[in-house]
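Internal ticket - ligand job 340, zinc ion:
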Amino acid sequence: MSINKLQYTIPTKPEFGVPMKVDEGVFLLKMPIPYALDHINLWLLRDGDGWTIVDSGFHCEEAVTIWDAVLTGFCNDEPIQKIVITHFHPDHVGMAQWLAHKTNSTIYMSQIEFLTTQMACQTYSSQQKAVRCQYFSRFGLAQAEVNKLQDRIGGYVTGVPEAPISYQRLIDGESLSINDEAWHLLQFSGHSPGHICLNNRQRKLLISGDQVLANISPNVSVNFYEAEANPLADYLASLSSLSTLHNETIVLPSHGRVFKGLQERTRTLKEGHHKSLDQLRDFCQQTKSGLEVIEELYGNRLSLFNLSLATGEAMAHLNYLIAIGDMSRSGDDVYQYKTN
Ligand SMILES: [Zn+2]
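stdout (structure tokens):
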């Protein structure tokens, strides 16, 4: 077992809706979200005579109330210069268009995250529903479960009632100027297709979004519309890249605590995935279905939402093993996996 050597640089716990200073001109805004994971960390950065906001929250009544209070109170009705969105997940992009409209400001995203938001906000056609159904069925989920998962379609738009209408593109390797400081843009895949992290090399501050978190292993999933994808390879590559940043970097993640110790954290996350891969190499010595793999990795008492995440994540590990030639898949109606 590896020892957690992370340093938590902020001794106090933030309160919902009350911006908390984490560095000069950098404030954490803790916002409620309707998941088991009950919050997201948003960031308010001093930017000239106004502010830049990083990530926006899941659209809900509390988020509207908090933003109304923060914009007039803490931000003193000063101009919002930019609204930066790390990726398309609803807790990050949900309030973006609302904020852009309210503050007459511009949304900044990577192109692929902007387009993925548009796609995720669309109503599924019956054919899309059928392909999604097949994705779960092939993985061995029972028809009753598949039906329940079909009934849950549309959850995304609850949190994102309005996709960003227009935006300015963030490009990997370029810099974004905030308060006359350069924040270097790093774009990664694995958790989402083109997730942006912002790195202030001068001050050794990294706004990491969901790409790296202190206590949670970010979800790495295969989606129904790209069932042969290998997102785990992308995610592991992103960890290698992040591990090259200065180890004194203070990481500002979207969930959980601000921390220092990027090399330790990326190593632990990598080890966790490699442990799961080893477990599956052993487990699939005998042919197994996807559902059996889910139960081996995550148990058999998952909520419906977690079952859908577990399907994507189990498939990500299996597709990784197939890609490196350690696993074979057979079957058409229900996939069967066997270690080579
Ligand atoms: Zn996310």
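Auto-summary: The CA atoms of residues 252 and 258 lie 5 Å apart. The first strand starts at residue 7 and ends at 8.
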